[in-house]
Design a protein that fits this description.
The chain has 273 residues and is α/β, with parallel strands linked by helices. Helices cover 40% and strands 17% of the residues. The radius of gyration is 18 Å and the shape is globular. The two termini are 27 Å apart. The N terminus is likely disordered.
Length: 273
């Protein structure tokens, strides 16, 4: 692929305040897929559950993490970034201590900008930064949206798929209105799709009626291999490269690259005008 037209990383926040929608699975495997396409990629674990981190390292191998970066300790983010076994993929890990950050940041006027400030010195080092966020619209998720260039929303193909997305869309609009007017909706990703059920098909139609063209063509199917791979500290591409999950995340990466590049072309056209 051609080099990205801008030298600063495209930063993708993967966010849904509902749990169990495949958010962390998407963060891990989209980041790995982008790295496999020769993009220098950083995965940031901003979820106190630290599942993205534990998919690569044992907890004892993570002495410090994003809590020390975003808290009053102000550790340089470079000190918590570690290379993974996947070429061109690095990880800024989290530990359970990150759960204490919300309380620490209450009342601080610059609380939403902590992550954005932490990334300033490293954005030229990467092509993509992928952020895994917690299943809540608290200060950690707000930090991700303020720092991001793009938002990706994973939505489970289920009966209650759209429930709660109004709050996320409202948060997205508020972030765009003030702290991050450049934030764009990269797309909505259907996850945990079971093509054998009518409920899943109905859910897809419901999601399409709400999000329209923002919906990715790629759908992530229910896949045992995707669920098993983190337990072996592997991405789907090393654990089961021939599985449907690996194929789907490859296709998703292609769509993400195409949308990001199209967005870049559109921006340059607007600037020229």
């Amino acid at each position: 692929m051609e080099a990205l037209t801008e030298h600063l990383a495209k930063t993708v926040a993967i966010t849904n305040q509902k749990g169990g929608v495949g958010k962390t699975t998407t963060a891990i495997n989209l980041a790995a897929a982008l790295a496999r396409r020769k993009n220098r990629t950083l995965l940031i674990d901003l979820d106190p559950q630290a599942n993205s981190s534990l998919a690569f390292f044992d907890v004892n191998e993570i002495p410090t993490g994003m809590f020390e970066v975003l808290s009053e300790q102000r550790l340089d983010i470079r000190e918590v970034i570690r290379t993974t076994k996947s070429p061109m993929l690095s990880l800024a890990a989290a530990r359970l201590s990150l759960a204490k950050l919300e309380q620490q940041l209450v009342g601080q006027f610059d609380a939403p900008f902590k992550l954005k400030d932490a990334l300033v010195g490293i954005q030229k080092d990467y092509d993509f930064i992928v952020i895994d966020t917690p299943p809540a619209l608290g200060i950690l998720t707000v930090n991700a949206l303020v720092a991001a260039t793009h938002l990706l929303i994973p939505v489970q193909a289920s009966y209650f798929a759209i429930e709660g997305t109004d709050d996320l869309v409202e948060t997205f609009s508020r972030i765009r209105a003030r702290p991050n007017p450049d934030l764009k909706l990269l797309g909505v990703l259907i996850t945990l799709f079971d093509r054998r059920t009518n409920i899943a098909k109905d859910a897809v139609n419901q999601i399409r009626s709400v999000f329209g063209a923002a919906l990715f063509k790629t759908r992530i199917s229910r896949n045992v291999r995707l669920e098993e791979s983190p337990a072996f500290r592997q991405t789907i591409f090393s654990f089961a490269p021939g599985s449907p999950g690996a194929s789907e995340y490859r296709k998703l990466a292609e769509e993400v690259l195409a949308r990001v590049q199209a967005d870049g072309v559109a921006r340059h056209s607007e600037d020229a005008a």
